[in-house]
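Task: sequence design from structure.
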């Protein structure tokens, strides 16, 4: 059986790359430490939330929602609506376009 040098070339390259490979343990350890820090942080958050009841969480979130600043309609001369989000206000604008309302002077180009 004859073996050509060209058929041995891929095998030799694979062997050379395998021989040159080395493991860098520092990166694996730092990654492990980072994951440990993440798990500790999530456990601390879980312990903080553990002491609160669902009712207390809902009350706090409701208060924060109420304190949010409302977004007023740009067409203040035709409309006095206030919206919780800018997206809701933008979704309301086609009403004014369809009604033929002109925007206030400060918004005209």
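Answer:
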């Amino acid at each position: 059986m004859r073996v050509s040098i060209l058929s041995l070339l891929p095998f030799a390259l694979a062997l050379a790359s395998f021989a040159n490979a080395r493991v860098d343990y520092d990166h694996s350890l730092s990654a492990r430490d980072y994951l440990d820090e993440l798990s500790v942080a999530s456990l601390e958050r879980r312990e903080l939330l553990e002491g609160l009841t669902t009712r207390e969480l809902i009350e706090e979130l409701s208060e924060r929602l109420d304190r949010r600043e409302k977004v007023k309609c740009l067409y203040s001369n035709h409309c006095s609506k206030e919206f919780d989000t800018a997206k809701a206000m933008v979704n309301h604008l086609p009403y004014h376009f369809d009604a033929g309302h002109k925007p206030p002077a400060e918004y005209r180009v």
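The chain has a mean pLDDT of 77.
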